Give the backbone structure.
Amino acid sequence: MTQVSERGTTLSSASATERGRAAALTSAFLRGVFAAALGLASIAALVIAAWITSPYPDSGAGGALRIAAALWLLAHGAELVRPDTLSGVPAPVGLVPLLVMALPVWLVYRSARDALEPDEGRPQLTALGALCTVAGGYLLVGGAVLLYARGGALSTNTFGTALELPLVPLLSAAAGVWVASGRPLSPLLGRLPRPGRADTPAPPAAGAAGRRRRALVVMRSATAGTAALLGGGILLVTCSLLWHAGAAQETFLQLAAAWSGRIAVLLLSVALLPNAAVWAASYALGPGFALGTSATVTPLAVTGSPALPPFPLLAAVPAEGPGTAVTWATGVVPVVAALVIARFTVRVAAPPYAERDEAWSAGDTALAAALAGAGCAVMTAALAAVAGGPMGTGRLAEFGPVWWLTGAAALVWTVGIGVPAALTVRAWRLWSRRGTDAVDTAGEVGEAAGGGGAASVDVTPDGPADGTATKTAWWRRVSRRSGTATPGTDADEGPAGQGKDDGTAGGGENGSPTPDGAAPAHEPYDFLPTDAFHDRDADANREPGTGRESGTEMSSDSTPGFEPGHPPEPRSAG
């Protein structure tokens, strides 16, 4: 009977575990569905608002919803096709607004990260389970949107879009799962060898924890360098728009006469602003970007005849004349990015006021800075690949930077400047620290020899047997500088058995003199003065009219007239 009951309990617990796991998988799947629906609803709300405020709507609400579905697919990297053109030839649209793409990326990332946080009473999912369920729910909605968008004003290639659509949810969900799992190291970063000879002692950053720390430093430095490039690109775009404000305003007013159309153009310009920042960063790096199939804009010169459609951001392109001092000055942006990488690397590799044995070696610092530059180059190349695309046929078939040229230029700039800068800052900090240590050591030696140094040393009984000096406590140094004597110190007129602070020899045990230069037999411990507190507590606890403390026997310290360092006065015979 007992075996039957135990078996029933085991089956019941296993069934409850399976039900909890199924509920967790269902919850993660619904998270992916909700993320896709929320992104689609956000884009549809903007499109419907533009359709309502438009004075001449070309289609009904169904057409506006199909346009919203097509724009949602465009945010995932799908290429759209405009069948109705003036020439009658369908024109592709592959330029993805990065700000619109950031919406689904963020939603899927948050959904996958939250899916690994177990609810109360439910088991925690594995990383692979959370990734598959969240991405599966998202792709289910994506398939329905792909079928619905067919036949609209903006159509898509069904087969090509079906291959491109899963990339964004899978990569975003993988990033969310990686963060929720504690940011585990990849095999490449975790198994990086440490440069140097075999007999070189391992630095403090050696081992698994050290490799993890170095990998985090590399990733943070690479992210900071990429952010510096994009920030410099946004600054260049802003300055260029202000420089060409007249042309940008004229183009903005020509595109739409009604306020609803102008608001739509303004929203599209804001959505394409991150793309313009990537273009400007590629321009500052040197390769520039393409404005058509036969034109390239670089800081040194403008080659070919650029094809400039009427758009405010394109009106700010410096497409006139050869390179000038103003365009060459854009090279400050990659220099700043390289210095940012060096800064983020050295602040961990050799922080200020760090000991020499705590700092990373020169090889480790150079390797970390080089890997951070390579990571910055990879991220910049990926952004350049997404930020460009075709705007039509013929000359408009190519717009934006060439991704591999942009990545190679970013690698040269960041590694060529970041590594020497990191090594220079590391050497400077270690040299400054060495000078500070030399000053401290000189002061300690001077105090030990003649008492004239800024710092002081004491030889304690617990110290090394060879008589090496150790640093004194801070309150002893303060008491010496202020000229006041504290119990247990070697100041002037100290307790019996101690020497003076003027360099004379101190007394030995029971006041006996010691040879010159010899340390006293007993050195008191370093402690704060406690005589005043002791006397006050003794007076408070002493019973009136007696020489005893409350609850204790009278000791020699509680004798009236007793002072530290002096024997009690003899009592009279009477």
Summary: Residues 368 and 392 are 43 Å apart (CA to CA). The longest helix spans residues 2-53.
